[in-house]
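Supplementary Methods. Inverse-folding protocol.

Structures were first reduced to a discrete structure-token string of length 274. This string, shown here, constituted the complete conditioning input.
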């Protein structure tokens, strides 16, 4: 893994409204179309994370929206996390629109049916979702490990409305949708890197609009949201979309309720059980 500096590139995402497939970063806008709103991206240098507005006391805040809705999963990924709680994030929605190699590695991807997708967040000015928040050590080593685990994502610094009688807005790091061209150029420029991460699984394109959620992962996320409470569960079911940007998770589960019966393999019971 390279040094943390330069890993968190300032990519761009187009805002996408429900039902409009939109464009990934690096693709041209339609003639005459107004420029999409631009989220504030963390720039390449690690010092951006260490700055006072991102880190306090050597810690930075992470916003969780999928498996990190589970405190158990969060602690398995970030054993040194502190102050696990919930908050509300405006202007972003969850979408199952990219291929995750870890699902192939763990034997839970269903390539034949296209049920291989994981979650990312993408801009939507009309959306609001419930996320989890927690602090983790803000060091070059911890940031490098974070980027390595979430290798295919772009990263944004976002303002989250924390729960409480006197809500405070605090910036948090969010894993966001990227695009294949920039990902290959910025994270997989070394010879053989893309093949080692994706090519060996037959994945030629990561960010897609024609994939379905990985069943075991989706069940895990639903159980995690349910464990947080009714508002959090409703946010996940109604504020999370399939790659078509039309179908909500609630609608998807209504169409195939057997997904919630999809037990994880024995080796993953603790990690994918909400």
């Amino acid at each position: 893994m390279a040094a943390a500096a330069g890993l968190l590139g300032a990519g761009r995402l187009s805002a996408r409204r429900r039902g409009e497939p939109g464009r990934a970063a690096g693709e041209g806008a339609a003639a005459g179309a107004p420029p999409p709103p631009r989220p504030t991206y963390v720039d390449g240098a690690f010092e951006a994370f260490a700055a006072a507005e991102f880190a306090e006391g050597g810690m930075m805040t992470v916003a969780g929206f999928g498996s990190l809705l589970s405190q158990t999963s969060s602690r398995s990924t970030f054993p040194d996390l502190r102050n696990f709680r919930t908050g509300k994030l405006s202007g972003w929605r969850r979408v199952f629109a990219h291929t995750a190699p870890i699902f192939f590695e763990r034997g839970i991807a269903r390539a034949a049916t296209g049920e291989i997708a994981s979650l990312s967040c993408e801009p939507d000015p009309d959306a609001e979702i419930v996320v989890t928040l927690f602090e983790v050590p803000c060091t070059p080593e911890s940031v490098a490990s974070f980027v390595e685990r979430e290798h295919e994502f772009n990263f944004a610094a976002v303002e989250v409305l924390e729960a409480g009688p006197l809500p405070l807005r605090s910036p948090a790091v969010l894993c966001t949708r990227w695009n294949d061209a920039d990902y290959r150029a910025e994270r997989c420029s070394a010879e053989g890197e893309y093949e080692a991460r994706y090519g060996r699984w037959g994945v030629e394109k990561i960010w897609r609009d024609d994939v379905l959620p990985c069943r075991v992962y989706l069940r895990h996320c639903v159980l995690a949201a349910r464990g947080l409470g009714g508002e959090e569960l409703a946010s996940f079911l109604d504020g999370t979309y399939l790659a078509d940007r039309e179908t909500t998770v609630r609608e998807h589960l209504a169409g195939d309720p057997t997904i919630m019966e999809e037990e994880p393999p024995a080796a993953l019971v603790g990690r994918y059980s909400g």
